[in-house]
Amino acid sequence: MGIVSPGFRGRGRAPGGRLPPGQYLTTDFPVLSAGPTPRVREEDWTFTVTNEAGKDYNWSWRELLALPSETPTVDIHCVTKWSKLDTSWQGVSLDVLLADVETAADYALIYSYGGYTTNLPLEDLLDGQAWIVHRFEGEELSAEHGGPARLLVPHLYFWKSAKWVRGIRLQDEDIPGFWETAGYHDYGDPWREQRYQGD
Ligand SMILES: Nc1nc2c(c(=O)[nH]1)N[C@H]1C(S)=C(S)[C@@H](COP(=O)(O)O)O[C@H]1N2
Ligand SMILES: [Mo]
């Protein structure tokens, strides 16, 4: 080695070690959807959190927008190996949405308009790690990318960031979602390259 400086070894190497193993950088924003794009009007949109006792907590679109929002700028990593740095979003932290939800559950199952689901530990939604976002790069989130609103949980592979999010079920058991049932990893940490079950 020696003549190649550490920052420029290999294809699409990110500055400051920001590219997880096996990933390459892209500047465009691919659309990855397992089915047709649901069209949900804002006036029809609701978001529901259901706790392990079956109690529902609901937000309308207007109620969501009335909550304090944040503007995270984060790197995102798709299991199909593209990563995109410094994406900027606006939305409501799950810390805000879950603040008054009574729960001792360990797991969350996210579900979407259109039927998509994905699972993760509840703790991965908390402490500034996840948002319900409705704007991307200063614009309304397009339907292809999950508008009116999607989950953003950038520290896990991007399949966990459910588009067209509709609600979250909090539960004591870990129930695999759409891709997890199809053989993708239950947790999906890009830094540990947890792509498939058994990784
Ligand atoms: N509802 C829903 N959410 C989804 C998906 C999907 O098919 N349906 N695909 C997932 C996958 S595999 C990825 S990589 C990202 C892609 O988001 P994008 O299309 O905005 O790039 O959305 C995730 N969220
Ligand atoms: Mo993906």
Automatic annotation (TrEMBL):
Coiled-coil parts of chain: none
Segments forming domain Oxidoreductase molybdopterin-binding: 35-179
Source domain of life: Bacteria
Region (Disordered): 1-23
Listed SUPFAM superfamilies: Oxidoreductase molybdopterin-binding domain
Annotated transmembrane regions: none
Protein name: Sulfite oxidase-like oxidoreductase
Natural source organism: Actinomadura barringtoniae
